[in-house]
Write a structure and sequence with these properties.
The complex is a heterodimer of chains A (about 325) and B (about 375). Chain A has 13 helices and 2 strands. Chain A has about 325 residues and is mostly helical. A two-stranded antiparallel ribbon of chain A has the order 1-2. Classes of the chains: A mainly alpha (about 325), B mainly alpha (about 375).
Chain lengths: ~325, ~375
């Protein structure tokens, strides 16, 4: 029974930790499916985390915070679009620049606004997203097996968690069942064909980059206003890159992205709870758990477990023929 | 016909990009309620106003020369090595092992061995991404990013569980023995009555870095291998037609790149800290990207850009000390330099090309 309680707790924290990964991963999915590589997920999340926490702290409204987070992430998306779509620059270099811009600007502005060494004041009350309790969660919690699963695992998360998981079927539907989705995928594989059909490559790619910005904004706001109560320096801690890893792991598909993010979230939850794991004589150090998402991604990229083939036109600016 | 003269490409565009980055940085300083002119004054006096300031500026510049050269060599083969950070961390591990586990009679021999160890470990860390790119087509940018994180976890493990001295809480190795301490500029250039570079970490590795610039220049422009690397970078199909093996060039270019990034460890680990600590690299591997872009991947450009970033780094530290502007201002400037010299290069280039074309038409 004790094992079951621990299991529920670990899975519960898996869901919490997987949420920002999933949002960022889906953000990357839209962008990369449209042929725009984005290694700036980390920076956009960080920027959104700061501005959401800052605005929530000043106004006391977490919803205004969320909007501010999304807006700040969209600004960086616009910059990425300007560099990689309009000026046909190197998308990878632009992503690197965005990550550093966010890392520096957040601390700079935080210090200037709040004078607390690069962090925002702690959020409380209306400044945070509160857990949503499902109906009867309290009364059902006594039922064996199903009770804890319903009331601990599924109920009691903030609204952004449910938004993130609902985004998975939504993304699948948009990508595979709508005209926009078809064009989006086409523009990442063969932009010339899309152009020939009279659809604007530039417009589609900007749309994809904008969706990416919105989702990264939600991911960042979740980090600072739901998972934790306020912004601290470098709080994304490589999550943007884990999301990127999950995207490759999932081979750029929405349902698999959810699986990959849950797996990486589970690894984080285990590392957080157990530190060094003793497997009857063999001790797995916590650092192995930290590094595992990255190692798994390299193994996948190496093509030893099925080959990960990115969208064909990914990373290449589109030049219209004259 | 060239769209614009070579000097414009090599000098004018980087200068304009730098100017744009500087203007935006000044606006940022204004926006957080500080005076940009005063800030620049403080930075100049702090970084260049004394031999102490110069000592730090040159120390940072040494790091950035190594990592900048590392990125530049990979750029010549049209490979983007973001893994300089991880390769430099592993280089540190190599240096620490050589300094700690082998009793050296004199620092000069130890330095040679440490160089070899740093290069070996750095190159080894670049070897796997290189192999995967060359043989299995895994994108080098993604794999080198992943290897940065794996390197950080690995180093953390080595320092906490293996190399930490007994009884110490600090995740760091023991201090290196006296015999392997590198001579600093203070001990090299001070006279009895006039002590210069007092307490500054700049050391003999600075000259190793300059030597590395010269060697890389010779390698890229004066050897067959350098020619092959450049040819492959210009056109893969052309290189294949000329009998150059893409697999070989990818792997060799990345090994050289990793070795150069690893070599940074003789400066920060052996020269400055004299032990291996967590986060010894302090992001220098990433600054290498800005330095290589700014220096147009030419060793002399890298040398100048590294000096500039050394100045910014030391000046930024002084700013953080005397004003309420945090050190992260440097990260913003670094981001803007990468943005303008790298990603938004065409924004500066296109109008300039038009300008030069119209000037030429006017002259004819």
């Amino acid at each position: 029974m004790e094992f079951f309680v621990t299991l529920i707790q670990v899975l519960d924290s898996t869901i919490r930790l997987a949420t920002p990964l999933l949002l960022a991963c889906l953000a990357g999915l839209y962008s990369e499916r449209a042929g725009i590589f984005d290694i700036g997920l980390e920076g956009k999340m960080l920027m959104a985390a700061f501005f959401s926490a800052a605005v929530a702290a000043v106004t006391g409204s977490v919803w205004l915070g969320l909007l501010a987070g999304i807006a700040s992430s969209l600004v960086l998306s616009g910059l990425h679009g300007l560099a990689s779509i309009t000026f046909r620059g190197n998308q990878l270099i632009s992503g690197v620049a965005i990550n550093f811009l966010a890392a520096g600007m957040t601390v700079l502005v935080a210090q200037s606004w709040f004078q607390q060494g690069g962090r925002t004041p702690s959020l409380f009350g209306g400044g945070r997203f509160t857990p949503i309790n499902f109906p009867f969660a309290e009364s059902l919690s006594g039922v064996p097996i199903i009770g804890p699963i319903y009331s601990e695992l599924l109920s009691g998360h903030s609204i952004l968690v449910y938004v993130a998981f609902l985004m998975v079927p939504a993304t699948w539907w948009i990508l595979y069942r709508t005209r926009f989705g078809l064009r989006l995928r086409a523009v990442g594989e063969n932009p010339a064909a899309v152009d020939t059909a009279g659809v604007s490559v530039v417009g589609l790619r900007y749309a994809a980059v904008a969706i990416c910005g919105v989702l990264c904004g939600i991911a960042g706001a979740y980090l600072a206003t739901a998972l934790q109560a306020g912004f601290v320096k470098d709080m994304t801690a490589g999550r943007g890159f884990i999301a990127l890893a999950a995207l490759i792991f999932a081979k750029w598909r929405p349902w698999h992205a959810m699986g990959a993010c849950l797996l990486f979230g589970l690894l984080q939850a285990i590392a957080l709870r157990f530190q060094n794991i003793d497997l009857g004589g063999v001790v797995i150090p916590v650092q192995v758990m930290d590094a595992l998402p990255y190692i798994l991604t390299v193994v996948i990229l190496a093509g030893f477990v099925g080959k990960a083939i990115p969208p064909r036109a990914g990373g290449e600016p589109y030049v219209k023929e004259r | 016909m060239e769209k614009m003269p070579k000097w414009a490409d090599v000098v004018l565009i980087p200068l304009i990009s730098l100017l744009l980055a500087a203007i935006l940085s000044a606006l940022v300083i204004l926006a957080i309620g500080e005076n940009p002119v005063e800030a620049v004054n403080l930075m100049v006096t702090g970084a260049l106003g004394s031999t102490y300031g110069w000592g730090y500026t040159l120390y940072y510049a040494t790091n950035f020369m190594f990592t900048g050269l590392a990125v530049a060599v990979a750029f010549h083969a049209r490979l983007f090595n973001i893994g300089g950070e991880g390769q430099a961390m592993l280089g540190g591990l190599g240096v620490a092992m050589i300094c700690l586990y082998i009793p050296w009679p004199h620092w000069s021999i130890a330095l040679l061995a440490a160089c070899a160890g740093a290069m070996l470990f750095g190159a080894a860390w670049a070897a796997i991404p290189a192999y995967l790119q060359a043989k299995r087509g895994s994108h080098i940018v993604i794999t080198t990013i992943m290897f940065n994180f794996i390197a950080a976890a690995f180093l953390n493990y080595m320092l906490v569980n293996v190399m930490r001295p007994q009884g110490s809480q600090d995740p760091a190795t023991a201090r290196f023995p006296e015999a392997v301490h590198l001579p600093t500029f203070q001990s090299m250039f001070s006279t009895a009555e006039n002590v210069v570079f007092r307490g500054a970490p700049v050391n003999i590795s600075f000259f190793v870095a300059i030597l590395a610039c010269v060697v890389v220049w010779a390698l890229i422009w004066r050897t067959r291998l350098g020619y092959e690397i450049r040819a492959y970078g210009h056109s893969e199909t052309g290189a294949v037609y000329a009998g150059i093996s893409p697999v070989r060039i990818t792997i060799i270019a990345m090994l050289i790149s990793g070795a150069l990034a690893g070599l940074m460890a003789i400066n920060n680990v052996m020269g400055e800290a004299e032990r291996l600590v967590l986060n010894a690299t302090e992001g220098a591997g990433f600054i290498g990207i800005a330095v290589a872009l700014m220096g147009r991947s030419h060793p002399f450009g890298v040398f100048l850009a590294a000096l500039l970033f050394g100045f910014l780094y030391q000046g930024g530290a002084e700013l953080a000390l005397w004003t309420s502007i945090p050190r992260e201002l440097i990260v913003v400037i670094q981001a803007l330099v990468i943005l303008f010299t790298g990603a938004l290069d065409n924004m500066v280039r296109m109008p300039l090309e038009k300008l030069f074309l119209s000037l030429r038409k006017g002259a004819e």
